[in-house]
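Our preliminary data section would be incomplete without showing what the modeling component actually yields. Below, a chain of 244 amino acids is followed by its predicted structure, encoded as tokens that our downstream tools consume directly.
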Amino acid sequence: MHLMRLAMVTRRASREDKMIDHVPVRIEHRRPENLGDRVALGFTKTMRFFADTFFRERHGHRAIVIETVAAVPGMVGATLTHLRCLRRMCDDNGWIRTLMEEAENERMHLMTFIKVAQPNILERLLILLVQWGFYCAFFGLYLVAPRIAHRVVGYFEEEAVISYTHFLHAIDEGRMPDGPAPAIACHYWKMPQSATLRDVVLKVRADEAHHRDVNHGFADELGGRQVQGIAPYPEHAAQLDMAA
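Predicted structure:
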């Protein structure tokens, strides 16, 4: 089954349906069910605490760091899955392309927000340290426990959805200007030239919700669970290949 469009998701979750304009996103939390899940959630909440402390209301700068880290897991997962399939001489069931496209999508998020908020020297140093540290840690984790690694990403994406929802609230409440969308964003998401930053955040948040569900689904599959759900794929996603 091609996992770019379907996610194998089984969860006991608390849900709050959210609809902003034409991009539907559910804010979900997958409750931890075992020690690995609790470790993944604890690590994610720790990272969230430091991000909240450092960035506070600087949503554009927070987005840059989020996307710098978020672009790592897909590439690591795709690389190690590729090598595993070569060793075992088996099919990847669509995982490699899904993870590669996730990494590319997150990279485009980063390229977009760099146009919105120019990071200062301290933030660039932080990005460098966080990216290298996270890459090494995630690579090691994926080698040892890929299920937990995907669960970490699922929880990361849960927090990303929440962060971008706060970003939207800041725009709607006038705490952050709703300027024009960067040209790279209009090209990538096939948006009109009249699109604004708010439109960009809506698209990014929908992407993150999809990554959240796909990675929780991957973790469930690695745990031996049956498929019981379809990931909500952003309605704009069918156009991404043509636009990128």
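The chain is about 65% helix and 5% strand. The beta strands are 13-20, 23-30. Preliminary results of this kind motivate Aim 1 of the renewal.
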